[in-house]
Each structure stands twice: as structure tokens, then as C-alpha cells.
Amino acid sequence: MVLDYPTRRRLLASGAAVSAAALAGCIGGGGSGDGDRFHFTQEQSREEQFDPVVSNDAYSFQVIQLVFDGLYEFDEGLELQPKLAAGEPTVERDGTRYIFELVEGATFHNGDEVTAGDVAHSFTAPVEEETENASEYDMIESTEVIDDYQLQVDLGEEPYGPFELATMGVTVVPESVRTEDRDAFNTDPVGSGPFEFADLQENEYVDVERNDDYWDDLEPNLEQVRFVAHEDPAGRVSDIRAGDTDVIAGIPNDDWDVLENEDGVTLHSAESPTFMYMAFNCNEGPTTSPEVRQAIAHSFSMQDFIESNAGNVSSPMYSPIPPVVNEVWEFPEEEYQEMLPEYDPDQAQSLLDEHAPDDFTPTIITPEGIRAQLAERIATRLDEIGYGADVQVLDFATLVDTYTSGNADDYQMYLLGWTGGPDPDYYLYPLFHESQAGTNQGHYYGGSDGFHEAIAEGRNSAGQEERYDIYEPVIREVVEQLPVLPAFTQDNTMASRDYVEDLQAHPEVTRNPTLVAEYTNVSME
């Protein structure tokens, strides 16, 4: 699994839950020299892969989600709704068989009809071709095309809990076009979505244009959109203030109040399914002691840090399950909050004096940005009680190579972020199950008897109530034993000029910008 880019469901390389971006263009179109084209300027470069079977970074998927339709798609409340599917699937064989019926008349941009064979290929190709997305579909044992509009999908011997909240949202590709020339499809894709791929200038821009023959009743108001990579948040804020852009996304915390008081600017925000955390080395060294982990959590105030450094664009977290996900599952978040150590420097010093070496100066590795600020805050507070910390700000590639070692000579703590979806498995399995040690985690937390088995059982169980009962003790143990300390969840934020209508931030990073859906149709008036 490559971790260089923030993706649909994985480590966040940047400090933002959504790519900080700008929909640039002139008021009413025309001033930018591009007519009515919208410009969407992304924070970082894309992988330049636009085949959904292959692509695994958020920035490419922001283009993909306009060009392709999913079998199901997330609505504004982060619930999957039928898109190419005619309705909910028929579930048989104790939750291990799904029969999908497709809408009739849905067509790809080349005029070919979307069939069950295309959906089957979309489910199986990531595993057959061993792409980075294989783990999202490898629970599928087989598919059977019943007819052009019916598909049977069989899982293994056991159910796969996240299937209905995650895997069913597969992005559908045309099998014949894609397999004829995969390389060409990757940079000039054919989908069935409301926009068509128009032009790609590598490392410069991507153009998409309205699909005037879109099979759905939805007709986008926007005619053209251009995606351009750009890394200057200060410049984006200046542009929106000056009216030189239409929309920016990923508002810096310190600029929130400025934009909130700016005439002609409207702010938008949505909680995202992100989990920012500090992990402790539970493999070797002093932080294998839960008392040392608790001491460090007592040494500073997470609440104060969030209010002073990220209060405008983030919300505190008290477990590894983001609040927007917890709204669906209703885990006892208030109880978890009460379980977490409160700011108590005297207790922190007492615990460290008893359980840590006299010269304890832990190494904290972190990417730059807000997480580096958090690491520095922790180091300052530890210094105040006679210990301190060595903060090492690493580029993301170096950080990834380092944190997975589990070596106490490399670090005692690391700060990272994870973006997921509306299922607890998105967070518990990759970040805590023993099979993911050295891949998505470097803390190597052994857990109590049955801890890892419960995480696997939750993944292989059907029914939300049953899975709740499995997951709740796992979450409680994480909060109590602190292999990771929950920090905050970041919001997806946007600022628009007042002539932009019907824009709203979506909780899922790859759905931004949602330009046309049942609940919105963005336009410039």
C-alpha cells in the first residue's frame, strides 16, 4: 500500500482533511480568459491516474467522481444511496450473497450501455490486477452475471461487515474500453458520469466538460471545470478576498475569522471522517508502559491546543471513531471523553518519576503543519515538568519509512492522520489489528486477550447491532490503554464568493467538489 498521497481511505499526508483548493474564475465567467470554465486548484499534485481501478489518491478521485458513477454513492449525510443500482440489493446466504439490479438505460460517454458485466469487472479487477485498491474488494469470492441488469456477488464463507457501507460504492468502469488499452484509459478515461474527460496536461491541469447526454435526469449547471495543482494557501485566501476566484476549499485555521468577516464571502463546513492521533511505541522502550502513556496525556491539554491552533476547522475526538461516524453508530463518546486523562502536570510528573527513566526525553516524529505544532506543544509541556521531548519534523516519505519500524531508537511517539468512511472497520482494522503491523501502524499494540480476534470478528460479522457489541469493548480498550491518543477530526471547509450558488462542503474528501447531485447543482450567477 503506497502512502505518499492522502486517499479515499488512508493516511493523511497533509494537515487538511480535504485538499485545499480553489474554484477559480471570474465573476460570471469570462474574466479569466476561459469563458465559463470553473477552475478548481488543488493543494498538491495528483498521481495523474484516472482509472478508478488503479487510482488511490484523493486528488485524482476528485476528478474521477465527476467523470464516473458509482453503483452506490455517498449522499450529503455520508450514507450510500443507489446510483447505477436500481435499489437496495437482495441479501441471501446469511449475508454472504448480494444480488444487484441495475437501472436500465444508463450509458457511458461512448454510448455503450452500463451492464452487469461492467459492474462485475469493477468489483474484481482491483484484486485480479493486484492494484493498490485490492484490499477493498478481496473479500469477494466470485461474481456471476445473471443478465445485463442483474449481478450476483458472493463473499467467502463469512460475511464482510463493511461491505454494505463501503464496498458496494464501487466506481463502475466500462470493461471493454478499459481492457482494450489500460494505459490509455488511465489518462483518457470513459465513464458514465455527469462530466466527460476533456484534456490532460500532465502536472499542469485536467479539464472536464458537461456531458450533455447524461443518462440521469440531473443536468449540471456548469459547462467546464479545470483542475490545477497549487500549493499556496495564502495565495488562495488572497484570491477569494479579491474576488479573483470563485471558491476555495481547505481554509487555514488562522484565516477563518478573516474570511468570515469578508464582504461577499460565504463559509461552508462539514465534519469529515478523519482521525488525527498520536501513537505511542508499544513495541519497545519506556512508552510500552501504559503509565508512561497516561503521563504524557496528562502533561498537556489537547482541548487548549485545538482551541488555539485549530478551533475553526476541527473538532476534538475522544476515540478512534470520528464524530461523524459515531453519529451513525452511537458509541458512548461522552464516556470515552471522561476516560481520557485530563491536563494534570503534577500527575504527569508523578507517573513519569515512577515509571520512566530519569533521562526520559522521547523522540516524536511528525509531518509538518498542525501535527508538528502539536508535537512542539507536548515537548514544551514535558519540559515544564523536567523531561522534554525531541521533535523531528520529517517529510512524509521519510516518516512512513520510519514509523513502521517499531524501533525505540527511531521514535517513542508519532503523529499521523487517517481518513475513512462510515464504518468502524475503516479505523479499527488498519490501525489496530495485528495483521496491519508494519504497514499501516508502527505502534505494535499487543492488546488484551481477544483484542485482535474481536476486530477480525467485527469485520466478518453482519448486522450493525452485532458489530456494535463486538467493537465497543475494543474502542474502550484503546481509550483506556492509549496505544494511540485521539486528537481531533478535521472539517472539510470552503469559502465561496456570493455569486456561487448551491455549493456545500461534503464530509467525504473525494466528493469535493460535488457540483451536481440530487441535493445540489452548483452554478455561478
Automatic annotation (TrEMBL):
One annotated Gene Ontology cellular component of this protein: periplasmic space
GO MF assignments: peptide transmembrane transporter activity
Taxonomy, superkingdom: Archaea
GO biological process, one term: peptide transport
CDD domains: PBP2_NikA_DppA_OppA_like
Record-annotated Solute-binding protein family domain positions: 79-437
InterPro entries associated with the record: Peptide/Ni-bd (IPR030678), SBP_5 (IPR039424), SBP_5_dom (IPR000914)
Protein name: ABC-type dipeptide transport system, periplasmic component
Organism placement in taxonomy: Archaea, Methanobacteriati, Methanobacteriota, Stenosarchaea group, Halobacteria
